[in-house]
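Q: Convert this sequence to structure tokens.
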Amino acid sequence: MKQPGEVESTPDTVDARLAARLAELRAEHGWSLGELAERSGVSRSTLSRAERAEISPTAATLNRLCHVYGRTMSRLLGEVEAEPEPLVRAAEQPVWQDRASGFVRRSVSPPHPGLRGELVEGRLAAGADIAYDRPPVPGLEQHIWVLEGALDVTAQDVAHHLDAGDCLRLRVWGPTRFRCAADTEVRYVLAVVLP
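A:
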């Protein structure tokens, strides 16, 4: 049965590798499913199913796990890719979708575990609204540059409306919310810099 925070899917190669990496990270920390559930706020059943690739975790669920493991989402997703190359062609850039929320994330920067900065292309469908209860890494610096459409971003209880061409720079310490503020999809670049 589907729990809140999960999307039913047939695992593809990325989902299967992600599931294996999530299980490895938990084992590396020596945590039981119950301990990880307490630390992350994600149910034991969702964690178990995600580690077995029975479901693909949502962006919000991955964000909670990244917070617990002290990783950005790009770093976690980069860890399930092959050895990084310095150049990644557009057709080879990994794309991940949260079908439940209408969020599509393209990792533009070549992945590398030691990256301090990275570029991500985000797309939100019309009406899509994603809330993160915490940053994956406290103090994470983000630059959000809207390419097409309009985006509402809320951070530290301050709402920002961004139209095409606008750029917002912030450090993320608490909850954030990204909402497509137009009748059409919004496309933006997210530059992420580790503290």
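Confidence is low (pLDDT under 50) at residues 6-11.
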